[in-house]
What we know:
Blueprint: H1 2-13, H2 15-40, E1 60-64, H3 69-80, E2 84-89, H4 92-105, E3 110-115, H5 121-137, E4 146-149, H6 167-188, E5 194-199, H7 214-217, H8 220-223, H9 230-254, E6 261-267, E7 270-271, H10 281-293, E8 297-298, H11 300-312, E9 321-323, E10 329-330, H12 339-361
Parallel strand pairs: 1-2, 1-4, 2-3, 4-5, 5-6, 6-9, 7-8
Antiparallel strand pairs: 9-10
The protein binds NADP nicotinamide-adenine-dinucleotide phosphate.
Amino acid sequence: MMKKLKEAFTFICSSDVWRMALLWTIALLFSYFQLLKNTIFGSKSTTSSSSNHSHTHRPVCVITGATSGLGKASAFKLSKKGFYVVLVGRSSHLLSKTLNEIKRQNADARLKAFEVDMSSFQSVLKFRNSLEQWLLESDLHSSIQLLVNNAGILATSSRPTFEGFDRMIATNYVGAFSLTKLLLPLLRNSHVPSRVVNVTSFTHRAAFAGRFDMDSVTGVNFSRSKQYPCARVYEYSKLCLLLFSYELHRQLHLTDDSHHISVVAVDPGAVETNIMHELPSYIQVMAICSLKILRLMQSPEDAAESVLDAALAPPEMSGKYFFGRKGRSIESSALSRDPELAKELWDTSCLIFNELQQTHIG
Ligand SMILES: NC(=O)c1ccc[n+]([C@@H]2O[C@H](COP(=O)([O-])OP(=O)(O)OC[C@H]3O[C@@H](n4cnc5c(N)ncnc54)[C@H](OP(=O)(O)O)[C@@H]3O)[C@@H](O)[C@H]2O)c1
């Protein structure tokens, strides 16, 4: 009991709590302010390019972190839109529970589940192989039409992965980068334009500077700190995901692929999910209550509409940052839009990816 109280006291005295309470709230309010400004000064919102799909040609969608919160609600909505939804999660028990729940609500849903640990390159690589095998064995075309990189954690301690990376960065960024690189051939194979959706966060606005060398992108330098800077690591991982989204968009539009694979980032705003489960419960209660009082907290079902907007927006919306539902987009932070930083991150991420591939494939 005393130990728990001491831990709670130490946590509330840490700069992380104040960073989350103040900077993250300001970042969220700033995003809504931008949305309001765009609404008043007439920036257009987009409408979905496709509606429900027919049974014979169901597009295939891969969604990570599909067993809880935003991922689960989005998986359900995508199944309703006619996608063949590939659920990716780290727990086989939660995967079958989610699968059954979606089936109960939508008997017409076509679903497939894969157990994958997004923080492990080996597991991501194994998933790519299993997915290819499954597509080959089923009567589906050897391609996917949509990849939603949604899995994410807000960890309060470093907990290095098998590869020695910081677990939060490995899950939120390196895993998403690696999966996208590995699935690009399947996205390219699609007969219709395909899409990558990266789920990022307004918290990226609190990251004022960033280094994108090997130690930073693997999170090793964060793990060296005396007290794990969980808020800063989360912001950094979401900033990386945004820089990556814009750079991938640029890279794809420089090649012959132009307009075939589009890339968008989506920020769902504040959502009542399990994301804060590692924080002390009194902090969770305080955060949820204050966001509800400010009327900024959404249900996963409502927030999943943003993911759907991002998934179904027309291809010319590639490179945009969706926020605030109804197909609306705003500008992300100036730092996240810096093409030089994006290139630096891209180069480091490719180095990490190549090293991991060499280790695991030989
Ligand atoms: N909630 C918000 O306010 C908010 C705001 C902005 C952005 N986001 C982003 O939205 C995304 C979804 O989060 P959420 O709020 O829905 O939180 P959540 O309820 O905790 O869902 C996170 C999902 O990611 C999965 N996951 C975590 N680590 C994984 C790993 N190593 N391998 C595979 N899957 C893993 C979780 O699996 P388990 O079910 O096994 O835990 C869960 O399904 C995240 O990227 C988050 O950063 C959330």
